[in-house]
Design goal:
By secondary structure, the protein is mainly α. The protein contains three helices and no strands. The chain is globular. The relative contact order is 0.11.
């Protein structure tokens, strides 16, 4: 979710190898409006997203 080219290339492959569905991986960028994620997963994604944006604001 940090839009790093390396991460975008490597992590989906790892997730697929671990059995995650293509649909959930493909919709990750739109997790806020996707029906693919549970409330618990949405909370974790929101926390991760907020933390990432906080880091970006303070490193520029």
């Amino acid at each position: 979710m940090d839009c790093c080219a390396y991460c975008l290339g490597i992590h989906p492959k790892s997730l697929r190898a671990a059995g995650e569905s293509n649909s959930r991986i493909d919709q990750l960028g739109g997790w806020q409006v996707s029906d693919q994620y549970t409330e618990k997963e949405r909370a974790a994604l929101a926390w991760t997203d907020a933390d990432q944006h906080h880091d970006l604001r303070h490193t520029r």
